[in-house]
Amino acid sequence: MHCELRQSLTVVSADFGLVADPYVVSAVDVDGLFRFKAVVFGASSQVEYVKLYTYYQTGRQAVLLHEVKYSPPPGAAANWLFGEQRVYSPELGRELIVACGWKAGQP
Q1: DSSP string of 52-101, one letter each residue
Q2: How do 80-88 and 62-70 pair as beta strands?
Q3: Tens digit of pLDDT for each residue in 46-67?
Q4: Within a domain: residue 29?
Q5: How far out from the chain centre does Cα 17 lie?
Q6: Does residue 96 fall inside a structural domain?
Q7: How many domains is the chain partitioned into structurally?
Q8: Among residues of the chain, what percentage have pLDDT more than 70?
C-alpha cells in the first residue's frame, strides 16, 4: 500500500506491505507533529483488512487521533483507493492530509 502524507509544506511518502502480525508495523513520522501507520493484514497475498492509524505527537507521547478499518472490496483483483482523509491536531488545529491506495498484485 502506498500512502502520501502532507502536513503544511512537508510531504512524506510511505509504503506498507502485507503482514500477518499487525504489531510489527512501525509508524512513520510526519514533521515531528504526527505519526501514521497503515496495517495491511492478511496472508498469502489475500488482504483481510486495512487499518489506518494517525497519532499526534505531544511532548511526552503519541496520542491516537484517528483509526479507521476497511474491508477489501469485492473482486480481490481490483485497485483499492481510500480517498483523502484530513486529521487535525488538538493544538493549533494543524492538519494532516492522508491519501492511500492499494494496487492489484502488490505483495
Answers
A1: EEEEEE-SS-EEEEEEEEEPPPSSTTS-EEEEEEEEE-TTTT-EEEEEEE
A2: unpaired
A3: 889 999 999 999 888 999 999 9
A4: yes
A5: 11
A6: yes
A7: 1
A8: 93
